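Narrative progress, year one. The postdoctoral researcher (J.K.) led the effort to move from monomer predictions toward full complexes, under supervision of the PI. The following entry was the first complex the group processed end to end, covering 418 residues in total.
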Amino acid sequence: MSSPNHMTSVQGPEPASARESEQSHHDQTSETEPWPWREASASQLAMGLVFGVVFGFLLQKGGVAKFDILIGVLLLENFVVVKVMLTAIVVGMIGVYVLQRAGIIEPQLSDTIYGANTIGGLIFGVGFGLLAYCPGTTAAAAGQGNLDAWVGIAGMVFGSYLFALTSKFSSGTVSKWGDRGKLTWPELLNVPKGVFVAIAAPVLVGVLVILEILATQ
Amino acid sequence: MKNMISTLLFITSVALPLQVAQAAEELPSPYPYPQPTWSPYLVGALIGVLVLLTLSLANKKIGASSAYSDLAGLLGRVIAPRHIRSLPYWQDKKPMISWTLLIVLGAIGGSWLAASTGTNELTGTYLQDMWLARFGPDSFGLRTIVAFVGGTVMAYGARLAGGCTSGHGISGTLQLAVGSWIAVVCFFIGGIATAMLMYRL
């Protein structure tokens, strides 16, 4: 930004032509330049594989690779999935708060887009109900030998392609409505992060306690 | 185009589960659900720690759904590279061998490891217990269609919503992202409605 400004002040016509050639160069590269095959360094990918193994191991031991347990939560009859998720959220929420304050981690947030989150979420839910496994637990179910999960994987690959195909038409519609960027609850409600976590964590623990009490009755 | 999409959506969201539920046998109530091997609280806490580890060591979060879109795009790059390059979504998010793809590949292996250690929980079944109880042993074709359509619809929704039960449901919610909480509530609303139609109607 600053260097073209600097150049204009020294020599008039040059920056424009420089910018022009830069522009055409850019267009050309984006069309013909080969796409890389690796998103991250080999060591980072290896780390992903190791973390993935642990993730799949935990999902299976937690019972959430089981068809019945996953349908059970959608029928509001079995709450293993809720227990796993809420415990992970409580532990992670407190951990993220502490580690962010210590400067050890940076937030890795998805965008908040009200339209896309809502409509996409509902569509996702329909597929989830039909398949019974969600994308992570499909991998776990496939790994423990549920053969129908492999059909689900094929479906997800096809569905992702369909999305890419329709991205020609869908841009600028629901995927843009209510785009709030990287928004968090403390920002939205205008309360300090620590205060929010100090209230939210016990509330979520309370939900788990209530679930246990209801289950024993 | 819009009409076609909404008709398709209606068919998959209401008509398919309804049709599937027809001629099905009634499930026992209460249904005898299996127990997880480990306490769900222990597993949940360890998954929470796992996300903290990936955030601090790799500067990445744990997700799953984009692995399938990367896989689709990678297959496409091999089969029809020009076509894949012409699609706006993949121009924006280039299909590559990604962190999330490795997470999912690892998860398949990790689950196999977990199922084969301790009490053997390897299944090798195509029709799972609850499905069998509801739709009977002759429902091989039905399960294939439902699983494939389910996977397709779910992946489409995940891409629109920007993530799945892992990326939004765990990694996003624990970082207090508003959109992740909205998405996960909608995942369950859609899932509960569909499952109720299919299993408890």
